[in-house]
């Protein structure tokens, strides 16, 4: 089921997408299973879930870097699988990625000037050398970097500075959608805040849409307007950010919320005791491939959960939950 939300313009539509990989033991693994969502222009969608839930696979699928087993992805109403080479090049100008590890994402053999200018050289052949240099200087300023950095190399910078360089590289072609794949998880907490603030400022200044992938619920709450929760490749909950944080419905989302620390020590201790009691309840021990992906971890699961995959259904306006019990 698709959760319909009325917006002025749907920029990206992911429609019943499934992605399957062949692992080292020659068995197929379903990385994504029947995933659907829409992204509106000038909006930010947060995608959360534990490692292995399929978050990064969504990013690669949107960028057409992995084949789809089923479903389709539309960009401004056009099926990406039908694009020819020229149209795909134009598409790549409109969607850019910011990666998790800022140092590994930058070529150590290239200077900062070369790293930031490279996308323009490949995607904007109409620009002169002087125009490219000017754009690089402007982007350095926009991301809080000095032009003194231009002739230096990635190993000379901190993790936070490298991530700013990576953001500058992604933004240099003026994309309409920026996909951030856990862009702050490798950074210190104080540096995380600086990078998040930078992304927020760039989004407002450039009129960007954004997909922000993370396992940190507090960061997602700060930057997102809607949040999609993934578990084992399936969407288990999708809602506006405040609705999700205040009225979480799916048992997995509730567990994720319980991992976000509270500022009040007394409330945090009380919540930890309550959560510990809930998780100690008896629960089914066997994961059913035909039923709910969260079956073996849920204290409320029953035979229906083992047999039938729950559909994403509306429990409130714009709030979908894939759970038989909620």
State the shape.
Answer: globular
Number of strands: 12
Named CATH topology = Rossmann fold
Poorly predicted regions:
276-288
What profile does the largest beta sheet have? 8 strands, mixed
* Computed Rg: 21 Å
Q: Multimeric state of these chains?
A: single chain
- Going by helix content, strand content and strand pairing, the class is alpha/beta
The CATH superfamily title? P-loop containing nucleotide triphosphate hydrolases
**Architecture in CATH?**
3-Layer(aba) Sandwich
Average predicted confidence as pLDDT? 86
| Helix/strand order, N-terminal first | EEEHEEHEHHHEHEHEEHHHHEE
Which keywords apply here?
326 residues, 36% helix, Rossmann fold, four-stranded antiparallel β-sheet, single chain, 11 helices
Describe what is shown at a glance:
The protein is an alpha/beta fold. It has helices at 55-62, 85-94, 112-123, 129-142, 159-171, 189-206, 217-223, 241-246, 251-258, 265-279, 303-307, and strands at 10-22, 28-40, 44-48, 70-75, 78-79, 95-98, 177-181, 209-214, 226-231, 234-240, 313-316, 319-321. The chain has a single domain, classed as Rossmann fold.
Describe, in plain words, how this protein is organized in 3D.
By secondary structure, the chain is of the alpha/beta class. It has a single domain, classed as Rossmann fold. The chain has eleven helices and twelve strands. Helix 3 packs across helix 4 and helix 5 runs parallel beside helix 6. The two termini are 16 Å apart. About 4% of the residues have low confidence.
């Amino acid at each position: 089921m698709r959760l319909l939300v009325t917006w002025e313009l749907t920029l990206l539509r992911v429609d019943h997408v499934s992605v399957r990989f062949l692992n080292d033991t020659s068995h197929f693994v379903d990385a994504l299973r029947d995933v659907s969502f829409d992204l509106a222009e000038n909006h930010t969608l947060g995608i959360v879930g534990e490692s292995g839930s399929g978050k990064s696979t969504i990013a690669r699928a949107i960028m057409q870097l992995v084949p789809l087993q089923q479903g389709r992805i539309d960009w401004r109403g056009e099926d990406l699988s039908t694009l020819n080479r020229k149209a795909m090049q134009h598409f790549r100008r409109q969607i850019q990625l910011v990666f998790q590890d800022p140092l590994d994402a930058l070529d150590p053999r290239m200077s900062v000037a070369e790293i930031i200018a490279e996308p323009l050289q490949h995607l904007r052949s109409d620009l002169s050398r002087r125009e490219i240099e000017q754009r690089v200087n402007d982007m350095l300023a926009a991301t809080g970097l000095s032009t003194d950095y231009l002739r230096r190399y990635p190993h000379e910078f901190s993790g936070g500075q490298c991530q700013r360089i990576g953001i500058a590289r992604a933004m240099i072609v003026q994309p309409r959608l920026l996909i951030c794949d856990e862009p702050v998880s490798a950074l210190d907490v104080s540096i995380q805040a600086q990078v998040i603030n930078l992304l927020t400022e760039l989004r407002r200044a450039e009129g960007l849409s954004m997909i922000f992938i993370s396992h940190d619920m507090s960061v997602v709450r700060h930057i997102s307007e809607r949040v999609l929760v993934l578990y084992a490749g399936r969407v288990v909950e999708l809602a506006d950010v405040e609705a999700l944080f205040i009225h979480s419905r799916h048992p997995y989302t509730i567990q994720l919320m319980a991992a976000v620390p509270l500022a009040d020590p007394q409330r945090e201790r009380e919540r930890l005791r309550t959560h510990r009691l809930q998780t100690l309840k008896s629960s089914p021990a066997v994961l059913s491939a035909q039923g709910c992906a969260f079956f073996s971890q849920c204290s409320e699961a029953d035979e229906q959960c083992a047999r039938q995959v729950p559909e994403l259904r509306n429990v409130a306006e714009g709030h979908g939950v894939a759970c038989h019990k909620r």
